[in-house]
Records
---
Amino acid sequence: MKLIESLVSVIVPVYNASTLLPRSVESLLRQTHQNLEIIIVDDSSKDDTYKIATILKKCDSRIRVLRNKKRYGPAICFNRALRQARGQFVTFMNPTDIASAYKIKKQVQYLLQNPKVVAVGTQCAVVKDHKNKEKTSFPEKHEQIYPTLLHGISMRFETALINRHLLPKDIIKFTTNAYPFIFSSLFLKLSQYGKLANLNNLLYTHYEEALSSYKQQNRKGRAVSYLALLLKSIAEHDYRPSLKAFLQPFTTPVRTMFR
């Protein structure tokens, strides 16, 4: 398949982000890889999010808008959009974040050139308090990513582009009871079908202080959820991280380990 022929589905779940959603979508419309479909899922927002999304849809035929009748949470939003996604490649986007114009093109090129890689992420800038910016230094190779995959300190899952060609049909499905580790659970499953990788390029900006609507669980609750996911992963995938990797979530600041 040629680069220009590769359809990419971008899924954007959103709840109460009317002021920030246009900035995020604009960064997608400016992608140098133009063969996109952008699926916005409004999770029954109480502000003008749905109105803004429908206005954006009228501006570009690549945008589709879905709306939930009630609030279900991110996992249901992702799954609903995935059922309608048509692209060979699929990626996710926080409604408050920004993607570099070259992000998707570079990722599609990488996956086409590395057919054994099922998903590739990027480095990202993390902005806190609208001013402090930190750059990630995620490892590039599967062997360094996999041991710390569950707690997401070796890959920013929202930056990843997934090659559905390597996967069984409908395998990309989020587990609703895995929150806040819905991405961790999914990517561990994906790693059974191919390798994971990160580009060394900074191609995504995440605004940490923005939109915390889905971040309600406290540190203790998240730790319990992490342990439950770890036990499930050992049973289902024989996932056995090193002792250092196992302890790392408990010694890493909450803002990094639990997103």
---
Amino acid sequence: MSKIKDCGGHKGCECEKEAFHRKLCYALVALILLVLFIILIVWLALRPHKPRFYLQDLTVLCLNVTPPSSAYLFTTMQATVAARNGNARVGVYYDKVDVYAQYKDVPITVPTRLPVEYQGHDDQSVWSPFLQSLDHVVLPPYLAVSLAQDETAGYVLVDIRLDGWVRWKVGTWISGHYHLRVNCPALLTVNDGKGSYGVNTGGGDGYFRFQQAAARAVSCLCCPCKCLACGLFSCLCSILISLLVTVGLLALVFYLIFRPHMIAATVDSAALTQFNLTSNSALTYALNVDLTVRNPNKRVGLYYDNVESLAFFDSQRFGFALLDPFYQSTEATTKLSPSFKGQQLLEGDITAANFRSQETNGKFDIEVKLNAKLRVKVWAFKVPGPKAKISCPITVPKPAPNAPAFQPTDCKVWF
């Protein structure tokens, strides 16, 4: 028969290690659910959105390249970009935002820095920066040929890019900097779609015209690399970390003030008046134990509730007894005398063999455990405490007229 390990409960127990791991998993799951719930509440309250950008106009004063004899590019343009913050409870700071034009993913103007600006709730901003190329900008040959072909065909597609940093403001909280990238595609007609033929090749009044669908501004693709929700999540994590640090500091202060110490327990005496195992593995027992439990704390009193005592042989419980609850004042000592008497079926051939071997040696290895729910008293305050677990592995002489005296044994205590 297989041996069944009993871990200390009188209603069908589970291993203490497995119970600890299960509680730890429950705590982690509860923490994750709490964080997700807070994020959901924040999202429902704020309904965060990315700012929307529009390219309202693009005026090209010059865009000239003459391959294959030359790949030098000369361009001057003015872009009118509008940004709207559609959030009802979130403000946006625009810091260090640069605007430039590019053709086929290659910049054709130098970046122009926009002024720092704050957008409040449902606010809108408009910028009209001038974009120019350097005098010595040289395009790759294939790109110069492609641009010349597009001008000849009558249509040129350029991109107006915004690249910079933003900060979010919710109430009085202001986030850190997050990268902002905006792409505004602009379709230009060349000479009203006729292409680059005539005396105005490369520029002139009305030579390049910005096309708007249905007389509306062109919507731009806005991509904050870290969105507002991410910023709020980071803020929430910072708050949780701050709370943990605060709790840790409070625990440190509590420790320095009260200097809590572990409970001390000792088995002073133990005697077996009956301890027999029948052929069908039925254990008849009568065990009396005297324990001393001491509270070494100078400023903390302890209430012991739901006190239960258990007796084990070869990891199998054979005895259980309830003890009266009690209170220990500071530096107090309490005597406990649990008594176990009855009959219990032990399982496993190995347990029976161990019993016979220890009976031959004249002494039995028995473990006595005490479990209690603590309440802590600090001054006039009473707060719930942990569950105390006291384990006392003792060696008890076999019942006999000339049995040797019991040796007092210290117990292990943990929470």
---
Amino acid sequence: MRIISLVPSATEIVVSLGLQSNLVGVSHECDFPKSIIKLPKVTFSNIKKKKTSSDINENIKEILKKSLSIYEVNAVKLKELKPDVIITQSQCSYCAVSINDVRKCLHKWLSKKPTLIDLKGNNLKQVLQDIKNVGIKVGKKERAQQIIKNFKNEIRNIKTLLNKHKKEKKVLCVEWLEPFMVSGNWIPDLLKILNSQSVNSISGEHTVFSNPKDIKVDTIDMIIFMPCGYDINTTFSEIKKNNFEFKKIFKNKKKYIVDGNRFFNRPGTSIIESLNILSEILYPEIFKPKFKNKWWIKI
């Protein structure tokens, strides 16, 4: 079976299912595990390399204004690789090639068309269902079920440890710096498991624009920065160098940076680590800081 993954979360799922050797192509954004980086890239971005989140946002607006795609598929390379299965997504048009872009490429194929798997998880339940669906379609149903079972066991273990902590914590998770955007989708679900509430966002709903001035700062326990596509160093550097309005507003609040690109922006099997990272940040008195200064930092 020859598999092409057009989204990082799909690549992680395929590898977790034990099918890394079946991968013949990936997207330009796929970067984990490191062993897949040399695989042929079948997508590319029309976003210019910019220095700040504001620059990137403006570039995306320019692209959309011209009715162009943010990301594109290399149709020639896709066909050359002769995939049996292509995994893409319809969850976010800003994050990766959309399923409609892929369908346009396949429409011209005269030979047998590959199986197309669409990842569309917007909340935690749907993300787990995506893992199960991929497992079923690539003949790894039992392995997918085991991954889901392991995650649910981890949830139970965490809830047992938090049994005495009934006071709800309010957490503001930031998915973009300029303009200021608050994380949605599966992030509120992860926080709910940890007896916490995601401020200004709802489970299953996309990231929303927010004005930091409108946020009731006094009710927030902490802020966690997890910009889409950013690692810890990139986020830290941009916050440090720029005079963002929110820096003054949240000056006296606990603030943390996590590796958004690796653990919080891609709905795949690494969602287990996402939960563990949040556990350490929210409850340092209970969970040992195994991932501190590697996958999260305090600022």
---
Amino acid sequence: MREIMIGLMLAPILLVMPYLMYLQAQYIKFKNEVPRFRDEADIQKLKILAARQMRGTPTGLKIVNYFPFLIWLTGLVMGDLYWSDLFLYIVLPYLLMLAFCSIIGSPPVKIQKFEVADQSLESQRDHIVHVWIHETHPDW
């Protein structure tokens, strides 16, 4: 039973890491296509990128944040898991994921630094980035 619980604790991180790499690949593709915002078509591409990246993130974060801890707590009560398992199979993988995210950076923050051709495009870009960071669903 211990091996199953350890696998269940690690599964969310092992599933989220490739998803984070996929999101980063989407950002890199966008950056190569749109090095600066020149017109409305570039803003539409940004809206599509932001909406795609916002879609699965809330659910994924809930699963990654709560599921491993609940499995560990259940295993601790059942006597199959120990306090050291909390560090080895939850804290350590989260630290690795945090390091990965710190290294690649946040796409919305990077996009906010892109050059913009005019003021109206800048306000649209800033609104999209604000929604992307602070909301769970796009409003466009």
